[in-house]
Design brief:
Length: about 120
């Protein structure tokens, strides 16, 4: 099986990379949030997606029932709370792993940009 690498320049200066137009966040529960995302890589079978996501301040629910996610915060400040109440504050440079089955909320304090890798269950 041949595997190709992603061009390293794809991930150069992610803080300034164009990620397209913002639209209303469907799972927002506070703050009239807007989000934008740009996928840089998808595996041939569609099970892995790597890209950048950005969201404005507010609060939204998140559900990783059918996927897991690794998030590297590029800019902004957030609190991520698990359904059982455990909360983590995150900022630039922090890494967060949301295992498959994770459910909770994100509270965005400052517009936040992250690099994400989502792996769908399969």
């Amino acid at each position: 099986m041949e595997t190709s690498l992603i061009d390293p320049s794809t991930f150069h200066d992610l803080a300034k990379a164009d990620i397209g137009a913002f639209s209303p966040k469907p799972t927002s529960i506070e703050g009239d949030q807007l989000e934008a995302a740009r996928s840089f890589f998808q595996s041939p079978d569609g099970s892995v997606d790597i890209g950048i996501w950005e969201c404005t301040p507010g609060r939204f629910t998140a559900d990783r029932t059918n996927s897991s996610e690794i998030c590297h915060i590029i800019s902004g400040r957030v609190e991520v709370s698990r359904a059982d109440g455990e909360m983590r504050e995150l900022g630039p440079g922090d890494l967060l792993v949301l295992p498959q089955g994770w459910k909770g909320e994100w509270r965005i304090h400052e517009t936040t940009r992250k690099l994400y890798m989502i792996q769908s269950a399969g």
